[in-house]
Each structure stands twice: as structure tokens, then as C-alpha cells.
Amino acid sequence: MKPQLNTRLSALALLVAMPSALALANESDNTEAPSQIEQIVVTGTASGMSGLRVDASYAITNVSDENISRLAPKSTAELLTAVPGVWAESSGGVAGANVFVRGFPSTGDAPFLSIQLNGAVIYPPSTLSFLENSSIFRLDETIHFMEALRGGSNPVISHGQPGLTTNFLLKEGSDVTEGLVKYTTSSYGTQRLDGVLSGQLADRLYFMAGGYINRSEGPRKTGFTSERGHQFTLNLTKELDNGIINLYTRQTDDHGVWHLPVPLNVDGIDNSFTQIGPNNRLARIGYGPDGDTQSFDFGDGRGWKGGITGGSVDLDLSHDWRLLYRFSHISGQANTLGLVPEGGPALLADVAGINGPVIGAATGTVYGEDTRVQQLGRWVVLKDIDAFTNDLALSHTTDNGVYTLGYFDSRYSVKDWWSIGNQAWHVLAKGGELLQGIDCNDSLASCSWNYDIDATGDGQTRAFYAAAEYQLTDQWRVDAGIRHENHQITYLVDEGLDGNISKAVDYDESKVAWTAGVNWMWQRNMGLFARVNRGQKMPYFDDFRDNFDAFTGGDKLINEITQYELGYKWAEQQYSLYLTGFMNEAKGELFVARPGAPAEVLTTEAYGIEIDFNYMSRNGLALNLNSTLQNTEITNHPDELVLGNRAMRQPRWQARLTPSYGFDIGDMFATVYGTLAAVSDRYADNGNSVTLKGYSKIDLGMQLEISDQLTAQLSIANLTDKAGLTEGDPRNPTAPNGRYIMPRSAEFSISYRF
Fold it and tell me: Which of 529, 617, 631, 642 could bridge 637 with an S-S bond, Cβ 3.0-4.6 Å?
């Protein structure tokens, strides 16, 4: 039988290998530490075959479930900070992150990030307005491990993401029935219960079921239950004589407050400040030409209510042929409600349109002229999404090579109802209330601007791809792949909610992507790889609305990406070093500050290096260093003054150092660990006129294995309570607003395995 991707066998192999760069050496002196040479990866090939990480001709990182727990990420995006080459801004809450990939220009959201579950992309458009993939995916104890592939073969396989693909693998059952119950609380009032159970249902039929229930006030302590949710996952695996069939479903209802930029350099406003609170979470807006009004709970924030159902069929056929079929269906609501700042703070005395005493709408307090106030927009985005994705690959294995033909087909849709803008004056205080006695507030007219739409769109992406890997000698291997993709979009927009279609799109374009690599292993555990690829980010619904004039003028709105990579890899029993140099060119990136504003079309170039170093001793000490150094430059832009500037929000360098140490305490085993993360200055705009200062952050934790079954863990995030800025005001870079990282918080959990 030729090698194949068997998630059960791969998962078992990971248990005896070092599961990630952050793993700890809790082996006793007479037990050999896990080997980094034998670390398995299951993502990144067209055929889906697993292999050794040290043999891979692309940059890939994996993080085990144990290390996900130790990192204690407050969102899926926050976990991505453990991946070299990735800069994740998770300061907005449990959803709505901004994720940037090495050298790729982006103004927000995560256009170069795709998330897969068991190898199938969860939603093919990696970014829509107010939606990126991490917003519709929640971490819990059902995840076995995550792999993150940058560049490499990405433009050819799956749905052709040229940037970062993260693949989350679910736990599976075995012949042994086992489970876990975990209770978590925190300094901000978390009440969370996780559970997972797995075992055998029948002969060679296995199950895993689990999920969570969660309630909390959130790290910024909003004054009400601002983060709430639950999730349930079921995973079924049937082993056949010649392969595996897998089916899973994941149902989620989870949301949290949307934290926005806050005024900077104002006394009393720090990283714990948030606009939303009990006195302003419920508000009424006016919209449409007929002056309709409706009340919304803006405390609902951003979240996901829906389900993902998918599976795979992995079969060994006769004569060294293999069939791998993956599918995924997603459907649900990804709404966004929040209070968005407009401009900077002001004194009430300077506000126009005051028509009498100014009082608080919730408390009735009368406010004087020296009260600090700010306009906050009451933004409502209601979004329904749906997608059905199929990925079929047929591979043939010979003595020296693997040859794969594949077909990818995905249909997806979105329905949007927006009313954004809707600015009104509020007291500038944590959870500051809405004011009455100001004309634009009282009339429910926006004090600045508004933008209302009703929109619907459908898309289909179909692609044929072919790939080959050929072992030239014991030391040399080459691989290549090509993909032909057809991309179709229909989209209708009613701007103003007046019943008239203001923008209509019927789009049908095809493109070719390709990749080629060479791998030289002059030792079993040491080698070099070189790779070049050419791919693209195709336009989705919002790209047409934001850039409609460019589209009707003949621009196809395709962001073309060229990447070069040169990697060195060295893995020994106790340590490993992976260095990846990269050079990218991205043409056609589009930036619109806010709806209706003119689009900026730019080209950027970037080069740099990723560093991923891991050390694990036999006496309990482990160390991980991951770092990225890069230089970005805007080489084409409508404003000549911008040429030569750095791409916005891209740091020149970032680094994470994670030491850990395991030791015995009587009959118990303790592990202490921490992370020192640092990032350089960034710019908030393409004009490089607003600097976001670099900062460092320390996280600490301790895990105590009380017995074989009982484990306690304490994690402290942002130990020194740093107020690092992740972004300025994306709608107005010169406005004195910015979004801080989360404040210091502590989390405690206790889990029981059986």
C-alpha cells in the first residue's frame, strides 16, 4: 500500500512526535524525548499525503491541542500569533480580527487567510466586509491540532489561497472510550464548561463529540454579559479495508462585543476602555428614505450563529491509485453591531445644534458644557452566508513519483442588510450614554454620514488542478503544480434602501496559477528548498461595490501575487531550525477608507525571513523562538508621494520567545511557561503619516498535573498591562483614535480526564 493521508494514523504519529514548537519536555530522565526529526505534517500537498515536516518544500507550522490550551487564546485569530510570518490583531474581541501575512498588503480583515476544517475550506471568500474566516470558527477541546501553511503550494490546491491556509484537524475516536471535562473561570468573570467524549460505536466505527458553554463580561469588563456562546461538534470515522470515511458537523452560536478604536492621549482612557456598556447597548436608529426606525442591542457585537457540516472519503484503489474527496457546507448568520467612533473627542460646549439642557438618555443626568463627548456611529450589519464546497483529487503513485489530478467546485452566497454611520453624540466615558437635547441625536438623523444597503450575491469558483512530485535521487526532489480557475459572481446592491438597484454585477473571469519547487536533502535531517509560485486573489462581492467605477471602467479587480521562497531546515532529536526567506509582489490591492470614498489601487513588494527555532531538553526545559523580519515597499500608487512608503500595518520585525520548564513536585508534575512577544513600529496609513509605536508583551502560565486524570492551569495574559496599539482609525488615520491590545487578565481552569 502506498503512503496516504490517514488522519487517524497521522494523529497517532503526532502523539509520539513533538506536537509543536511550543511543546514541553516533561519526560523523565530514562525516557527519550520526542524527536523533532519525526514531526508529521498533513497539509500542503495536492494528493493529501502526509509526510515529515523536515522533508516539506514549504513553510508550515503545527500547534497541538495541548499547546493551544497553554497559549489560552481569547479568539481563533489570537492563536495565529504563534505562527511565524503572521501578524494578527485580535484586539477587537472574539470576532472581527485583522490578520496580515508576511509581505501581503492589506488594510484590515484577513483577505490572505483561509481556514480549513479537516482539510476543507469553511467559507471560500476569505474576506467580506465585516467578515473574515476566523470570525466564524471557534476553538475548543474537540480540536486535535492546527497546521498553518504560508505560500508554498497554496495557490494551486484547495481554493487557491495565495497567502496563509490554516487547517484545523478534529479529534477522532479509538477503541478506548475516553473523555475530558474542563471548567474555566477568569478575572473577568468567565464561566465556561468544556467537554469531549470519544470511543467506538461499532466495529471500526468511531466517534468524537464535544463542545462548550461560555459566559463572561469580557477582558475589558463591559458591565454586562458581553461574551456568550455555545458549540457542539460531532465527528464520525469509519475505517474500511482500503481507506477511511469521515463525517462531521459543528453547530455554533457565539458572539462578543465589538471593541473599536478609542481616543488616545486622554486621561482615564486606557486599554480597558470600551465604548459599549449597560447604558448605551440598546439604541434606536433611523434608516431608508421613509425614515423607518428600529432598536438594536449593540451589545451583541460580532459573532456567528450557524453550522458547518462536512466530511471526506479517502480510498486506496487498485494499481497504486488513490481517491480523496472532501466536502463542506456552511450556513448561518455573521452579524456585526457596534459603536464606531467618528472623529476625536470634543467639549459639549463646542457641539452644534444644542436645543436645550443636554441630558443622558439612560440616566437623566444633566451634563454641563465642560463634558467631554464623542460621536459614535451605531453600526448594524446583518449578514447571512451559505456555501457548499467540493474538492476531489485522484492520485497515482509510482516508485519515484506522485501524480495528482483534481477538481475544486464551490458555490457560495451572501445576503447583506446594512445601516452604518448613524453617528450620535455620547458622553466620553466607559459605556458613556447617548445624549438628548442635540438636534441630530433627537431626530435620529446621523450627525455625520450614513450608508444603508440591501445586497445579495452568488458566486461559483471551479478549478482543475494538476500536480506532480518526483524523486530524482535520494537527495533531490522536484514538484510542480498548475491550476485553471473560473470565477463567477452575480451581485445586486440597493444603496439607500429605496428599492432601486444602484449596482449590478455579472462577472466571469478565468486565471491560471502555478507553483514549482525543488528540495535538496543532503542529510536525512537537513536540507534546502526553493520555490516560486504565481497566484491571485479573485474579487468577491464587496470588492465590486467598493470599486464599482473601476470595474465598469474595465478593471477586472484581480490581485495578482508572485512569491519566491528559499528555505533551510535542520531537525535533530532535541532541536530544530527552520529559516524561510521570501520575496513577494502583490499587484492590484484595493483600499477604500469607507463606503463612497475613492479607491486606492496599489502594488507592493516585500522581502524578508522567517525564523522558527525549537529546543527540547531531556531535563524538562523547552524553548521556542519564532520571528519575522521584513521590508515592504509601495511601488505603484495613484499618489506619487506614497511611492516608496511602507505598507500599512506591516511591522518591520516581530518576535516571540517562549521558554518553559517541567519539574516534579512530590507526586505531581508542574510546567511553568511564558511568552515574551515584541513588535516594531507600524504605520496606520499608506501615507506613513501616523505611526503605531512598537511594544512588547509578557504572558505567563503554570500547568499542574495533580494526577493522571486531574490537571489545573493558571494563565496570565499581558502581565505588565501594556497598552500596545494594534491599529489607528482605519476610516480616518489622522483621527486621534486607536485600538489597544487587551488588558491584563488571569484565567484558571481545572480539567478531569477519564
Answer: 642
